[in-house]
Amino acid sequence: MQTNEPIDAEALLATPMPPVRWIIPDLLPAGLSLLAGASKTGKSWLCLWLCLQLARGGEVWGRSTEPQTVLYLCLEDTYARIQARLFHLTDDVVPSRLYFQTGCGAIGEGLELQLEKFLRQHPDTALIVIDTLQKVRAADPSSGAYASDYQDMSALKSLADRHRIGMLLVHHLRKQGAADPFHQISGSNGLMGAADTIWLLQRQRMSTAARLLVTGRDMDSRTLHVQAEDCVWQLIDEETAGEQAEQAVPVWLWKIADFLQAAGSWEGTASDLLAAAGLSEPQPNLLTRRLVEHYYTVFAPRGIHYESHRTARARWMIFRCDGCDGNDDETESPSCAAGTAEASSPASLSSLEETSSGENQVSQA
Question: Is the pLDDT of residue 245 over 80?
């Protein structure tokens, strides 16, 4: 199929496409990947262990792999250091499919030709690791940071895609913190934009525990909790993005959702809701905040619609549930009908404009 020619949707849907090639199932697909981490956090030890496991067809964090040829460009090491690490990680048997190289040309200055030659000689190659990306970049003061980053990454991605191999680039983090951990990756957004998969290794200095954040175009985001044991990163636990979102939800919020689903419909204040659900925590103002924050994780999937408005006494909360047992025999109000914008839009989670106290006064009868 010609990538530089348009194809209509009907023809695309009728054309069989090869599936994603997984170098490591659900973690590392073919294409261009980036492994980023702070200096001296164990990235090179991790790469060497991964290369060994893939070359001999060993398990990688509970995932089976087939023996495959791997090329490791360890450009900040010497053969003596690599040999010492191999002695540490292996017994007498060393996989013949693993190759090392400590020097190469830069991108656009011979690197691609050297990799193409290796791939012709070893057509069963599955993974090429370049440690580090900066060692294969040529200085180009004439172009901006984003353009330069994207151009270099695109050259390597094109090679990886053409041969359907994985290419893992080792890179560093900047020292400044960021709310989004992936924004700590050194360089412009062009690096992340061109990469198919990102691995981010987070480790406190002198700690043996770390988190590996994984995200990409062909997978669900996930976090691996790993522990360094004798220079090997062992998997302790693993969470998908969905599981992390659910774990962030307070237990009492799930209980409130259970109560509302059983009730079918309910109106009152946050204090009234806590009392009706039989809960002594949290404070009413925290309930309102967490309800809005986790609405699309806890309530929306259950068909529970929520809106609120301010009264003279407090914020009045209104819940309606689609298809819940407690609401089967009731006629649903138009504002809470399933599929209406008012019931399911984010705007329905915000407070309505305050009206006059006479209009908003709740009858105590």
Answer: no
pLDDT for 333 beyond 80: no
Query: What topology does CATH give the domain 9-241?
Result: Rossmann fold (3.40.50)
| Bridge-based pairing state of the strands 69-74 and 197-203 | unpaired
pLDDT digits (tens, 9 = 90+) for 27-53: 999 999 999 999 999 999 999 999 999
Domain locations in the chain?
9-241, 249-360
Distance CA 115, CA 32 (A): 14
Distance between CA atoms of residues 327 and 334, nearest Å: 14
* Res. 339: pLDDT tops 50: no
Distance CA 182, CA 242 (A): 18
Q: What is the DSSP letter of 93?
A: -
Q: Phi/psi at 78 (nearest 5 deg)?
A: -110, 160
Q: Tokens 């006629």 appear where?
A: 331
CA distances from 149 to 16, 111, 134, 215 (A): 33, 16, 10, 19
Q: What is the dihedral of CA 333, 336, 337, 338, to 10 degrees?
A: -160
Residue-wise pLDDT tens digits, 158-206: 999 999 999 999 999 987 878 888 989 998 999 999 999 999 999 988 8
Count CA atoms within 13 Å of residue 251 on its CB side.
Answer: 3
Question: What's the distance, CA 263 to chain centroid?
Answer: 36
**Comparison of pLDDT for 364 and 115, the residue scoring more:** 115
- Which tokens hold the place of 262? 């059983």
3-class SS at 328? coil
Question: Does position 244 have pLDDT exceeding 80, yes or no?
Answer: no
Compute the chain's Rg from CA coordinates. Answer: 27
